[in-house]
């Protein structure tokens, strides 16, 4: 499971739902794009999957709809 910043969240509900600590949730709240938590089994670790905008992979993995609309308008 991968947990990235979801905007305004109910802190307690997210902690309970995903069984994470306040410290772990702090890695998600207000995180930069590409940063968050990854869970594999009972292990939860911070994740930095930042991709530079000039990288070809950025276009494949970009989920910023505002950027996508601007890109469509410019082509």
> How far apart are the first and last residues' alpha carbons, in Å?
35 Å
Number of strands: 3
H/E element order? EHHEEHH
Alpha-beta content class: alpha+beta
The largest beta-sheet arranges its strands as 1-2-3
Average residue pLDDT: 84
Computed Rg = 15 Å
Q: Helical element count? A: 4
Q: In this structure, how is the largest beta sheet organized? A: 3 strands, antiparallel
- Give the overall silhouette: elongated
Structural domains: how many: 1
Q: How much strand content do the residues show? A: 15-25%
Low-confidence stretches: none
Query: What's the helical proportion of residues?
Result: 25-40%
Describe the structure.
By secondary structure, this protein is an alpha+beta fold. It has one domain. It has helices spanning 11-18, 22-26, 56-61, 65-74, and strands at residues 2-4, 35-40, 43-48. It is elongated and about 45 Å long.
SSE order and pairing:
Blueprint: E1 2-4, H1 11-18, H2 22-26, E2 35-40, E3 43-48, H3 56-61, H4 65-74
Antiparallel strand pairs: 1-2, 2-3
């Amino acid at each position: 499971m991968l947990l990235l910043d979801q905007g305004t969240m109910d802190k307690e509900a997210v902690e309970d739902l995903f069984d994470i600590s306040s410290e772990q949730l702090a890695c998600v709240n207000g995180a930069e794009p590409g940063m968050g938590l990854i869970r594999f089994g009972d292990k939860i670790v911070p994740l930095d999957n930042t991709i530079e905008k000039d990288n070809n992979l950025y276009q494949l993995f970009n989920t910023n709809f505002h950027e996508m609309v601007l890109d469509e308008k410019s082509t």
